[in-house]
Amino acid sequence: MGRGAEEIKWPIHLEVSRATARAKAAVEAAGGTVRLVYYNKLGFRALLKPEWFAKKGRLIPKAARPPPKQRDKVDSIGRLPAPTKPLPFTSEELEFTAKREAAKVIAA
């Protein structure tokens, strides 16, 4: 992106995990912003595939803080998606959810 600096003509706002100084300067010269965000491996999974957690019956994890060596290289901690529906906790709620899902399949 730094090599194609002259190609950036409109302001764009990016949220990335890593960027070179040249690329960041090119985007900011066009009036845009580059925000360096930290995600760990589990955070990336929650960001890209939140359905994986629902399928496994797990809650989406909280965003992790960067390790001490990387704290000066990032602007903020990544935001993770909120769960789309609450997870059932009691056996009664599990049974109710299973019956409701079965009714949806039969109706379809």
UniProtKB/TrEMBL annotation:
Record GO biological process: translation
CC terms in the record's Gene Ontology section: mitochondrial large ribosomal subunit
Keyword Cytoplasm: no
Coiled coil: none
Pfam family, one: Ribosomal_L27A
GO MF, one example: structural constituent of ribosome
Entry superkingdom: Eukaryota
Keyword Ribosomal protein appears in the UniProt entry: yes
Residues of the Large ribosomal subunit protein uL15/eL18 domain: 2-34
InterPro entries on file: Ribosomal_uL15/eL18, Ribosomal_uL15/eL18_sf, Ribosomal_uL15_bac-type
Chain segments carrying region Disordered: 62-88
Alphabetized UniProt keyword annotations: Ribonucleoprotein, Ribosomal protein
Residues spanning the membrane: none
UniProt similarity note: Belongs to the universal ribosomal protein uL15 family.
Protein's UniProt name: Large ribosomal subunit protein uL15/eL18 domain-containing protein
Originating organism: Aegilops tauschii subsp. strangulata (Goatgrass)
